[in-house]
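Q: Start with the shorter request: fold the first protein.
A: Done. Sequence, then structure:
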Amino acid sequence: MAPQLNDRIATEFAEELAWFTRVLETRLKLYFGHECEYANIHEVIPPDLVNSHTPYARLIDQLKLNINQRLLLLLTLVPHLQPQLLDPFFVKNATYDREFTEFGGQKGKSHTGFLPTGETALFLLAGDHLSDRMKCLQLFEKQDPLIKNKVVRMESGEGVSEPSLSGLLSVYENYLHFLLTGEEQKMSYSVDFPAQLLTTDMEWDDLVLNQSIRSQIDEILVWMEHGDKLLVEWNMHRKIKPGYRALFYGPPGTGKTLTATLLGKAMQRDVYRIDLSKVVSKYIGETEKNLAKVFDLAENKQWILFFDEADALFGKRTTVSSSHDRYANQEVSYLLQRIEDFPGVVILASNMRGNLDEAFTRRFQSIIHLPMPEQAERLELWKRGFSEHCELDIAVDLDQLAKSYELAGGSVMNVIRYGSLMALNRNSNNIRLEDLKKGIQKEFLKEGKTI
């Protein structure tokens, strides 16, 4: 981050936190009936952000946040910036010798300061004025810009019967990072986000596809470039669903993952491969909850979600003969709904099209078959795969290799990798035919075949 931006961000947050402190002091004075220069917290003038271009100011302008929303956002940032500002909430009710219930709040496992909850926000913004508190409940509805755009979240209260506002109030990590540094944060793999960012140094020329398949893939690129215009400017959002859903199917190694990654690279969008082993749970309701975390985080990020080996979760629904079947079908139905409502691009990959529930396939905009490459395509894979720093032994005939051995692109690259390593192990740059054939044999053995 540039030093100038860092200084501007620090200066602006110092002013915002000073304003927040005055608002909190005003609320407490008014609540306890102490002498106060203000009749309500909205008389405390906030800093002017009109000419500011920090990430914080841009976010407020972009989402058109009002004063209450701005204070709510600040409340979630305070524990990360100056947690001591919330220490006044630790004051005890002398009558009952306990904390004030109306302040809400939680104590963290490691953090010793006060962590705000929804109740804390209502107290700050409305005190004990019931009508004002009821109006402020709108701040936690799905359509509020902070909630809708996944800037702020309120976790569910512990236990089924806990009041909803007792849930912890926090800012999403990626927005916290952005507001404090001005840089977009790439999501990292975690329990809450079981997905891996896919990147590649390869280009479209490295992916050998016939023209028909490439034309189908280009349709996805066209959607990513013009989809928003179609929905908004052409007013088609009332007639067609948002987002784009595609199925890639074909044998392993035919380029399904690479194609998804190149789509993201071409349009400068992050591609996340969902780890289904961490999503699917044997416990009732947990699979849906895990999926919700992924979709909620991705909803407004322009990401591409890539479900590899999707059969594990998107398989055909079964005839209900037990409670287990019923809940499994519920998982599929839930997933179908989330995919259909997702405004971004979702790509499912499967070895066989027939393994997926027909309810999914009917809703795909593209169903693209990535088959085993033909002889001519295999020859191109062999030709493009070797390093420019190596040389092929005179006995190596790429035309013959392409003709004799039916291999997918991923398998060809595994063979080239093996042959190249064997050459390096001999302190040579000469790649021998016997090494390539041994590499081919290793690939065939994976599939239970022999040369």
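Q: Next, the second protein, separately.
A: Sequence, then structure:
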Amino acid sequence: MAKPSFSSSQLEAFLEEALPIDEIALIEGALRQDPALLKQLTAIHSRRDAGVHTLGEIWRRHRASCPSREQLGSFLLGAIDPTAGEYVEFHLQTVGCRWCQANLADLNNQKSNVAQSAVRRRKYFQSSAGLLGRR
């Protein structure tokens, strides 16, 4: 069985935790069995700690391709420009950006919390409507 090979950019993304989970697991497994791969990853990590950065690293670190939280919110509400919506869908599904997926999940959670709060407020108002005095 041939050993899997990984590019430097894949290993850099691994260090940034910017890969899909199945790919991260594959690299972790390979690192346990391949001392040369571990040495390569250590060299990349040392270079990054020394302040030597590639354009790709800077791009990933600053998440230059990630949509903003506002764009993700608009996407969630279906109120985004169709072209931008296609990009957000591509970024979430095809690229599999875990940061944006987590951000979208947080926004979705907030959306459901707001909806639950509105229902709760309406119930409180309805239950106390007869107790409020009229002036």
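Q: Describe the second briefly.
A: Residues 72 and 90 are 12 Å apart (CA to CA). The longest helix spans residues 98-128.
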